[in-house]
Amino acid sequence: GQPDSSVPPSGVSCSGCGAELQCCDGAAPGFVPAEKYQSLSEGPAGAAGLRGAVCQRCWLLAHYGRALRLQLPPEQHRLVVSAALRRPPRHGRGPLLLYLLDVLELPDPVLPQLPGLLGPDVPAAGLLVVGNKVDLLPADSPGHLGRLRQQVAAACAQAGLRGAPLVDVRLVSAKTGFGLEGLVSRLQRSWKCAGDVYLLGATNSGKSTLFNTLLRSDYCKSRAPDAIDRATVSPWPGTTLNLLKFPIINPTCDRIFRRQERLKEEATKTEDQLSSEERKYLNHLKKQGYLVGEVGRTFQRQKSSPVVDFDPDMLSYSIDEDPRHSPRKHEEREEFTHNEVKDARWCFDTPGIVKENCVLNLLTEKEVKLVLPTCAIIPRTFILKPGMVLFLAALGRVDYLQGEKPAWFSVVASNLLPVHIATLSNADAIYKKHAGQELLKVPMGGEERMKEFPPLVPQDITLEGIGTTEAVADIKLSSAGWVAVTAHAEEKLLLRAYTPKGTALVVREPPLLPYISTIRGARIAGTAAYRTKKPPSLVENLKTTGRK
To answer: Known InterPro entries for this protein (predicted)?
Structure first.
């Protein structure tokens, strides 16, 4: 489709990303090809005919997983978020800030920016920090969720977020539904002391997925899913470009009682009592993550029976007429009335704040899909001697330079990223020969791709082991994943880790999953690798029947 610079912007937002729909600039947010734009806006409704439409970028993301690179500087995302938070308080109360962080990214790179983003002139009613994507991580020991929650709380304290503004810390999976019924209950308890709710967080933290799930939960007005479109969800960073919103339901005493009764009833069910469709969906979620939960709805809107319009002119046409050009009535979109929303409180999905020094900013859309984990991560453990090297694709490298004994290196990254073991003497040659090729996989595109890709730069790391079952630290290779290092007690290791120039390498102490090296099978003879092992999934809100 072609742009038409003579047509002014519509004033109507894209229902997928929130950008203003326009057909004058193909490189700007909200672009719709001129032909499509005119066909939607030339009807009797005018520009209102564009309501419910999505821009070309959202359409390509949703249907083909393709991302258009837009001319949108990272600072513009921050400006949209900052301006939204500085709106005058509604209902006499400040907004509740729901900050979503990806637990795989701890320490969250955007969290320290939050106090500056809010500023002293934002009278927030409270800050609720939610750690997302816990379903991707295996349970390395009993109580691992409590330990993860403590790490999220520690990251908040380190970022200067402690005391009155921080009201709670939660762990959820926006994708599989784990922890979301508890989050909805916690949000409803904030009704009396907060105004509107804003979803904040870095790009790819899962805000739009959470927005879509809350839209179909007890947190949202019962009619809203029919009147409001879902946000576009994609692995490509920065999908949401402006504000999307839905109206929050008033949690009256009667509604809270009915909701609690539903949750109690569902908690008595076993997996065998679910319908065949529910079991099928549950098994699908189990393949996606280690932690699974169901998000139900107590307040279902009763839909009226459809009325069939009988139009005899539509049922008959002569042989000379082409039925494809028969006029069709425009399908009416559901809209809220003024009275329904005049005093409503809204939940806003804001644009993700772009992470700086992140390896994802260097990758193509195909490479991003390989790097970002979308299903349960299966840890891969290797036992290395001094003089051995571990490659994580061509995005990261860890050299074991000095130590008295072998140590265990457990890779926690997308299952699609290859791990290759080499020796110090041939590591440089392997990288030069195979970076951009199938062996190391990412980046992809051969020599031409690697010419433009930044070189790997080293950082020396000294660690002291604490035991053969507990990792001493994680070496986080930007957003590509991390390597947990386990060594004999008091054993001193000298390592050298590499990431692409301009990306962040973090030594995380304590490690996120300290007992990760115990999730392994038998040693594979003649190699440094152990067989992989996948722990079982845990289903929330279902009565167990003796099986896990």
So the answer is: GTP-bd, Mito_transl_resp_regulator, NOA1/YqeH-like_C, P-loop_NTPase
Q: How do residues 410-421 score in pLDDT, each as one tens digit?
A: 999 999 999 999
313-323 residue pLDDT tens: 333 333 343 43
Phi first, then psi, for residue 419 (nearest 5°) are -115, 130
Helix (H) / strand (E) element for 464: namely strand 456-464
CA angle 22–25–28, rounded 5-degree value:
85
Q: Of 361, 368, 507, 526, which Cα lies nearest the Cα of 442?
A: 368
Dihedrals φ, ψ of 54, to 5°?
Answer: -120, 155
Q: What is the mean pLDDT of residues 164-169?
A: 79
What SS3 state is found at 287? helix
Residue 18 near residue 27 (C-beta atoms within 8 A): no
**HSE, side-chain direction, 13 A CA sphere, residue 3:** 16
Task: For residue 361, give both structure tokens.
Answer: 């900013």
| pLDDT range class, residue 68, cuts 50, 70, 90 | very low
Report yes or no: 125 and 92 within 8 Å, Cβ to Cβ. Answer: no
Q: Which long-range contacts (CB under 8 A, 24 or more apart) does 252-256 make?
A: 255/218, 255/298, 255/299, 256/188
**Half-sphere exposure (Cβ direction) of 342: Cα atoms closer than 13 Å:** 3
- N-term to C-term CA, the chain: 52
Position 121 pLDDT exceeds 70: no
Going by C-beta distance under 8 Å and a sequence separation of 6 or more, which residues neighbour residue 106?
151, 152, 155, 508, 512
Query: Of residues 231 and 119, which shows the higher confidence score?
Result: 119
Q: Look up residue 263 and give its DSSP letter.
A: H
- Diameter of the chain measured on Cα atoms: 91
Does residue 216 carry a pLDDT above 50? Answer: yes
Q: Classify strands 482-486 and 407-412 as parallel, antiparallel or unpaired.
A: antiparallel
- CA 261, 263, 269 angle in degrees (round to 5)? 110
User: From residue 425, how far is each of 386, 432, 493 by CA, in Å?
Assistant: 12, 13, 19
Peptide bond before residue 443 is cis, with ω within 30 degrees of 0: yes
Cα distances from 540 to residues 148, 263, 294, in angstroms, run 17, 11, 7
* pTM of the shown model: 0.80
For the chain, what percent of residues have pLDDT higher than 90? 44
Compute the distance between CA of residue 264 and CA of residue 436 in angstroms, rounded to an integer: 54
In whole angstroms, give the CA distance from residue 66 to residue 364: 10
Beta partners for residue 495, in sequence order: 400, 461
- Taking phi over 0 as left and psi of -120 to 50 as alpha, with beta for the rest, 8 belongs to beta
- Tell me the two tokens of residue 131: 């750690």
CA–CA dist 477, 401 (Å, integer): 18
For the cut 90, the answer to whether the pLDDT of residue 167 exceeds it is no
- Cβ(227)–Cβ(122) under 8 Å? no
C-alpha span between 441 and 401 (Å, rounded):
25
pLDDT tens for 401-445 read 999 999 999 999 999 999 999 999 999 999 999 999 999 999 999
- The arithmetic mean of pLDDT across residues 161-167, rounded, is 69
Chain-centre distance of CA 303, in angstroms? 32
